[in-house]
Amino acid sequence: MLKKLKVSVSLIVLGEVLYWALEYFANTDNSIFSELLTGILLGLSVGMKLLGIILLIVCIVKTNTEVTEKKD
């Protein structure tokens, strides 16, 4: 359980770091390589954030169901 929580938080943080890198590279010239790199970084950033949030929600729901079952 704790491992999934660590993975989800690290994915969210890594997604934020990639988004900051995207902002850094977006300020450069508008070459084809720059546009490709911007698209790849944006896709990876959004994907990692979404995956981290989904894992976090699953972890929270699973914990809540386990606590509810132990009370009964």
Please name the defining characteristics of this protein.
72 residues; mainly alpha; 0% strand; rod-shaped
Summarize the structure.
With 72 residues, the chain is mainly α. The chain has 2 helices and no strands.
Characterize the structure shown:
- This protein is mostly helical.
- It has helices at residues 2-26, 32-71.
- The longest helix has 40 residues, at 32-71.
- The model has no long low-confidence stretch (mean pLDDT 85).
Residue-averaged pLDDT: 85
Helix-strand makeup class? mainly alpha
Largest sheet: none
Query: What's the SSE pattern?
Result: HH
Binned, the helix content reads over 70%
Gap between N and C termini: 21 Å
The total of beta strands comes to 0
Shape: rod-shaped
Unreliable stretches: none
Q: Give the percentage of residues in beta strands.
A: under 5%
**Estimated radius of gyration:** 17 Å
List the helices and strands and how they pair.
Layout: H1 2-26, H2 32-71
